[in-house]
Amino acid sequence: MTESLVDSYFVLFLVGVTSAAGLALWMRWLGLPFQGLRQALGRTLEWVGICLVCLVVNVGVGFALSVTLRALVPASFLSPYLSTDMTLGLLSALQATTFQWWRHSA
């Protein structure tokens, strides 16, 4: 096995173990019912979808703005690669979280 494949399996194993331990602890100490897990997983998948939509829109708008700015102001240089910064993914996740909470509170 290659090193990156072993690293990937390690991360999956780690998340699986901590998720199983958290599930057991939350059910025992907080009294959360197992039946509610299905709804929670559904909301998690919904959140992932909203994150992806936010990320795609942010990258697209950022790329379009950088190309437009370069065309309108020839002396300026704004790299379209700024639209692919990791921070944009984190901020897109924050946007998605805010939108999902707002949607479910209404």
Major sheet size, sense and barrel closure:
none
Query: Which term fits the overall shape?
Result: elongated
The secondary-structure element order is HHH
Count every helix, treating DSSP H or I runs of 4 or more residues as helices.
3
Per DSSP, what share of the residues sits in E-state strands of 2 or more residues? under 5%
Compute the number of structural domains. 2
Distance between the termini: 50 Å
Structural class: mainly alpha
Regions with little confidence, pLDDT below 50 for 5+ residues = none
- Mean pLDDT equals 88
- Rg: 20 Å
Helix content: over 70%
How many beta strands in the DSSP annotation? Answer: 0
Please characterize this protein's 3D structure.
The chain is mainly alpha-helical. It has helices at residues 3-29, 36-72, 86-105. Helix 2 packs across helix 3 (86-105). It is elongated. The chain starts with a helix and ends with a helix.
